User: What shape does this take?
Amino acid sequence: MNGKQPMVLVDRVHKFYQRGSERLDVLDGLTLEVREGEFVGLMGPSGSGKTTLLNLIAGLDKPSQGEVWVGGQRISSMSESQLARWRTAHLGFIFQFYHLLPVLSAYENVELPLLMLHLTASQRRQQVLTALELVGLADRLKHRPGQLSGGQQQRVGIARAIVTDPSLIVADEPTGDLDAKSAVEILDLLEELRKSLHKTIVLVTHDPRAAERADRLLHLDKGRLAGQQQPSPEGVPG
Amino acid sequence: MTFLLLIVKNLTRNKIRSVVTALSTMVLVFVCTLVWSILAFLDSVTAEQSQNLKAIVTERWQLPSQMPFAYASSLSEGAASDPDDVQPEDAMTWQFYGGSLDPKNRTRDNSLFAFGLEPDKLLTMMDELDELPPERKAELAAVVDKMRGNRQALIVGRNRLAAINKQVGERIKLFGLNYREIDLEFEIVGVFPEGRYDNAAAFDREYLLAALDAWPATHNGRPHPLAEKTLNLVWLRVPDMQAFTQVDQQIEESPLYASPSVKCETASSGRASFLEAYRDLIWGMRWLLGPAILVTLALVIANAISISVRERRTEFAVLKVLGFRSHHVLLLVLGEALLLGVTAGLLSAGLTYYFVNNVAGGIPFPIAFFQAFYIPLDALGWGAGIGVLTALLGSALPAWSARSVSVSDVFAKVA
Ligand SMILES: Nc1ncnc2c1ncn2[C@@H]1O[C@H](COP(=O)(O)OP(=O)(O)OP(=O)(O)O)[C@@H](O)[C@H]1O
Ligand SMILES: [Mg+2]
Assistant: This one.
């Protein structure tokens, strides 16, 4: 695509967890660049650190060493509350198990991130409706998560992730809990987001069908990036 | 607004738990309201009034106080002997006469306890009756008028009247209980205004005095055993504490009250010394029962909230991913507890207020000379206050733990 400053830059990041006296090294000097508008797939065996990496990119956790930059901002040195604000505006997170609040309707679930922004009720309403229309659920506003299928719930999850119009969307096995047909629908939707809205997407998956959709596929193993299919023109260190 | 909605919706998530928590809050607020109503009332009656005091003169060493009626007139003047001495503004004497409608079979429902006094003093000296609104006062004055011309007139409280199953206009004969063989016939001429004297009765003291005077004639010239012990209390109205002190001193120094000797107290100090006997009980109510209820309630709320927080750790993590900051999560949990606590507390205090005062007619808790207690309007404030306080105490820890949920810890387990 183009050679502007990367959307995501993970720079020589180490991440370890201390468990009692034992140190568990999860990420080991990992470097990764994702360009704006790129759709990157991340695969790897269970426990290889995919979720850990995603959490670092999403500002949900801090690297033990190294830096994480997103959209030109060094998020690895932001405070908790700066990160929270940053996430609301710049990041959409899609979960494997949807994690919608069961007591809220689809509409209210999608509205949640907007509560953290200074918007009027009608502005919020406009954005929620737009997001739900985009995922094809304009007719399910009042349904609670329990009244929706897995695929529909995930679409609400996606609407919630894009409702603040973030530039980066990260998804942790978004199709992992879905049947084949719903999975395809979700992947179509993600691809659509990237194409028509130019979102940058980082997708963790075990699902080869999901991996197929990515511009670039990365393999994580024992905290390092192993190899890349369809290497990008510039090349990525690792 | 949507935030509040989220709080409300969270409460509906586990309805049984919310209802049980609300009910326990209501029960405990109910008990607290009763206890505090009694304490507040006792506090108010023992709090010293600084203006318009009533001094109470009683026998010094005996309970019940039984003074000779000869003391009445000089005590009513505050034992003033010198032109410089202070005279009370007003005074009244009390003589207690108990009688039963049936001489052989005395029950609670056929007996009556009446104050022998000067009828005029009903209007000027009796607590509450001296502060009636004009129309009620006029009604009472009409009854007092009837008493003036008729020694046998009796004014009765409405509850007592109902208990003995009589009506205004009827005549009754009472067989003396404390005044043995002094049987008095009365004509019921009216009822007390509703309130403090619903169970009392009053009549002209001259009637009792005359009966005592007539007694020797039919008993070989011997006086009635209580003839010299018929004056139970004297009340004196004084303008302020300084006048009270002076009158007290005049009575103290007077040679007239040697045997038996007398003492002078303010109404509140009199009540306070009477309440001394209940000091431990009142202390326990105030400092053990009250706090114990608050602690229990805080624990009940803490338990319910911490269970619900534990169940929702993932949800709080999700909210944080969506950009909710720690204090939003904290507020969410506190808000839930507060909303529940305040609603249940207000509701409970409101219901207690309504039912105790309007349906049950007071708390039947006879302590000292008080028969029943009423819930003050303040109770609504207490209810809400208890709700807020216990909700804050109970949810502080769970709310803090919700606030501190670490997203990466939660999802490390989920993923
Ligand atoms: N907060 C944490 N505390 C301690 N250890 C953690 C934490 N988060 C992750 N780990 C550990 O780090 C390692 C990598 O975990 P991670 O969740 O990133 O793997 P993953 O590649 O996403 O695996 P999966 O495919 O099963 O989701 C695991 O061994 C995990 O137990
Ligand atoms: Mg994972």
About this structure: The two ends of chain B are 33 Å apart (CA to CA). Chain B is about 50% helix and 15% strand. Chain B touches chain A at residues 1-3, 5-6, 9-10, 12-13, 314-315, 318-326, 328, 407-408, 411-412, 414-415 (CB under 8 Å).
